[in-house]
Every structure is written in structure tokens, then in C-alpha cells.
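Whiteboard transcription, Tuesday session. T.W. wrote the C-alpha cells on the left side:
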């Protein structure tokens, strides 16, 4: 599972608990996502950019983003921020999470769960970016409508963890 710099990252413990009931989960966190993790309540084993080159010192050593891609049967980025959506659309790989996505084997499923402000969701570029990712094989779990953390009401909130869990479980089992 990948987590990015969206307020919806506050739901990561709940989603992780659901997924861990049937799957072995590793969490790749962007630097921005760490702003939304309560360090006092965090029970997650999080992999960050700082871990990327711990196992590599010379040619032949393991490269973490490749090893994670090989290990995973499915990759779900929940939540997917507008910033990381743009990075994926343009093929940028400037952090561990986007490196895993860029190296992904599209014979295996990759899901994204966009979560952003309603006006960011409704921006014309968002649909263009999602259409591009769909054409490459990304599965999109659309956001839901509700009152967002900023007080705006509309589409943009990450889908409920139970729904995400059920969709991923159906795909694997």
C-alpha cells in the first residue's frame, strides 16, 4: 500500500487493519504523508524514501523499489494526492512510492484511491490524468462526496476503508 500527502492518510491505520486480516501488507509513505500520521498512535511498519538505498552499495545488490515491485501481488495507493497523481501521469519517479509505480508490472493489479479537495478533483487536468492512468492499466476507486476536512462539501474524499478493502480482497481472492 502506498500513502501520499492527503488528509485522508489519517485513515491509514483503519485500512491497514482491514487489509492485514487477509493479506501481508507493506506501507510505502511519501514524505508529505507523514504529516498526517499520528506518531503516538502509529503502529504501522512504514517504508520511506530513507530506506530506498539501505540495502544497496554496489552493482548486484538489491534495489528496494524493484524488490517491492517483485514482492507485491497488488499495489494500492490510498490515498492518492493530486500531487502524486500528477507525478504518476508524467512518469516521475522522485520518491520510493513513485519508483515502485514506475517499475510496476502491469500484469498485476494497481489501484489508486484519489483524495483531494473538491475543487482539485473538479479541475480539468484531474480527469485527463485519470484517463491516462486508466489507459495504462490503473484501476481507480473514485472518491466520495462528503464534507471535507477543509469544510468544503463535494466529491474528493477517499472512499471508505471498508469499500477499498472489499474491492482489493475480491480482486485477490
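and on the right, the sequence the group agreed on:
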Amino acid at each position: 500500500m502506498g500513502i501520499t500527502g492527503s488528509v485522508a492518510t489519517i485513515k491509514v491505520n483503519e485500512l491497514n487493519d482491514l487489509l492485514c486480516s487477509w493479506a501481508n501488507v507493506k506501507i510505502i509513505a511519501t514524505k508529505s504523508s507523514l504529516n498526517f500520521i499520528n506518531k503516538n498512535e502509529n503502529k504501522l511498519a512504514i517504508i520511506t524514501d530513507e530506506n530506498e538505498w539501505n540495502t544497496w552499495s554496489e552493482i548486484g545488490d538489491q534495489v528496494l523499489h524493484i524488490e517491492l515491485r517483485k514482492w507485491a501481488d497488488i499495489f494500492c495507493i490510498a490515498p492518492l494526492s493530486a500531487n502524486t497523481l500528477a507525478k504518476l501521469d508524467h512518469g516521475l519517479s522522485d520518491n520510493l512510492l513513485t519508483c515502485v509505480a514506475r517499475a510496476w508490472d502491469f500484469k498485476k493489479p494497481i489501484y489508486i484511491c484519489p483524495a483531494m479537495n473538491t475543487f482539485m478533483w473538479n479541475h480539468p487536468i484531474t480527469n485527463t490524468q485519470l484517463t491516462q492512468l486508466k489507459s495504462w492499466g490503473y484501476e481507480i476507486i473514485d472518491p466520495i462526496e462528503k464534507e471535507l476536512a477543509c469544510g468544503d462539501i463535494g466529491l474528493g474524499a477517499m472512499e471508505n476503508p471498508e469499500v477499498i478493502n472489499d474491492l482489493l480482497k475480491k480482486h485477490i481472492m
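Someone added at the bottom: The chain has seven helices and eight strands.
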